Structure formats: structure tokens, C-alpha cells
Amino acid sequence: MQYKSVVITKKGSPEVLKIIANEVRAPRSGETRIKVLATGLGRTDVVMRYGYYPFAPKIPFAPGYEIIGVVDAIGEGVSRVAVDDRVAALTVYGGYSEYIFLNEEHLVHVPVTLDPAEGVSLILNYVTAYQMLHRFAKVKAGDKVLITGANGGVGTALLQLGKLANLKIYATASLHKHDLLLEQGAIPIDYNSQDFVDVIHKTEPNGIDFVFDGIGGNYISRAFKVLRRGGKLVEYGNSGFIALLLDLVKLQILNWLPNGKSGEFYGITGIYRKDKGPFMEDLPTLFNLLQEGKLKPIISAKFPILEAAKANELLESRKVNGKIVLLAPELL
Length: 332
Prior knowledge:
- By secondary structure, the protein is α/β, with parallel strands linked by helices.
- It has helices at residues 43-49, 116-136, 153-164, 178-183, 196-203, 219-226, 241-256, 268-274, 277-291, 308-316, and strands at 2-8, 17-23, 31-40, 66-74, 86-90, 99-103, 108-109, 144-147, 168-173, 187-190, 208-213, 227-235, 262-265, 299-304, 323-327.
- Helix 4 links the parallel strand 9 and strand 10 (187-190).
- The protein is built from 10 helices and 15 strands.
């Protein structure tokens, strides 16, 4: 018996993604075999494909940072999950596949009532947003924040979770995406025609409490300009290793200045590898919020798993609000 995966065959644009066949094997000790129901696309997949992501394995490999699936078989010693359990995992890579093999320590139980497309959207984007808000920034009701690139996957997660936390939110996006921001109660700023530094200086002359920035570069120094004394920048989602190093240097220099402002990088992969505990606590919390109707992931498009190349073309077009999801054919 065989199953198929979509793998990066060399560095480059979406056409380097090719479908390959793999032999189905039995899971090893401590391992599970999972039929993938859903996996999400994100900017990290693109960075991996162009060869800029430090945590990626050697080519060829299947991208896919997160999955929801059904346990199909278990190896010796597996006790936390059973066959037919629905589970989620932060995989970092491997999700563009009909089956995936994961050790049970990485698995989180998923309520069977959750839509897999909505559920998988929480694993990377919403956990990232939740941890930045509540573990890094420790926001409280009434705090004033800025979200840059607010129409993306993490950006829309920050909007929804920020609204739940009763924050006053400023958010940047192009003008035609402002309806999305307004629906979430944010104050929109058009990054094409407005400078968010000028806008916030006029409306919040004493500065704001937090900036959540996934763009980097000159946005780092600009973000510091709108923070109040004691305010904090949370930086995330850099576009590659060299960009990360440059942004780290900028951030360190700004942290040295005697202005009472600070900045910090958030990276879910590094945090997860150091300590899985926060992720294992936060993802079930988000599943509960989804079940209660308090969250509604914005899904821009759905594709079959084996059409990952076409989905990546859409992702790179930058015509996406929210999340692109790859699904098992029976869910489409």
C-alpha cells in the first residue's frame, strides 16, 4: 500500500513542489500513524521552499507546519492516544501528505465536533497570537495596541483574540481590506497612503502599550516611535535567517536606548522545542473558544492536499485574507 506526499524537490517557486509516492509502514515504538485530514499553509512554507528557514530539513521534504488527522495505527508503548482518535500537532514540516508519522508526545486531542479546516487554522496562527498576547505581552483590558499586516493568518488571529481581550486595536492593511479590520472592531490604517507613526502620534500622543509586528525591517524602529514609555514591541514571522539576524541586531540596539521601551522576538518553533507545555495548554483553550463560537477563523481558500502547489501560488499572490487550508478529498 502506498500514500502520496507533496515535497519540495529543489529551492524555488511553487512549481518545485511535486507529488511523490511512499510506502505505508507500521509505526515504530512510541510513534503513531495519522491520516491527515487538514494542514495549513503559511509564510513559513514559502520561506522553507526558497531555502531560508533554519529549522527545515534537507531537501527533499514535505512542508506543512500543522495538521489535524485521525490516528490510523499506533506503535508499541503508545498510551496517550488510540486508533480512531482525532488529534492535532505542530509538525513544522511534513503536513503536505496523506499520512504522517508522529511520536505521541506531540499530539493534542481534538473534539470530533470541530471542523478540521477551522481547527487546523488555530494550531500555528492562533497559538502564536494567543501566546504573544497573553504570555509575552500579558495584555489587559483597555490596552492600546498596533497590529501590522493585520489581514494575514496571524494578523486576523490577533484581531479576534485582541477583541476578546477588550483591547483598543489599531491595525494596518491595504485599503480594500479595511472592512475585515472594521468587522473585528479595529481602527484601520492604510499602509499605502498613511504612515502609522503619524496616525498614532495624532490619536495617541502619549503612545500605545504594545506593537505586534510580523514584517520587520524598518517597521522595528518605527514601532518603537509609537510606544509609550514602558511599552513593548513583540516581533514575529521574519522572512528568513539573514533577515532574522539583522532584525535581532536592530532590536538589541533599540533595547539599549534609555527610553523605557523594549522589544522581544517570538518564535513558536523555538519555544515549542524548548518546552511543549505552553502549547499543550493553549491549543485546547483555543479549541474551547472555537466550540463556544467565540472564534471564527477566516479561511480564504481550501484545496485538496495534493494540490499544494496551486495553493502555494495563491499564497504568494498576496491576495489572501486569513488562512489557506489543504484538506483530505473527502472533506471538500
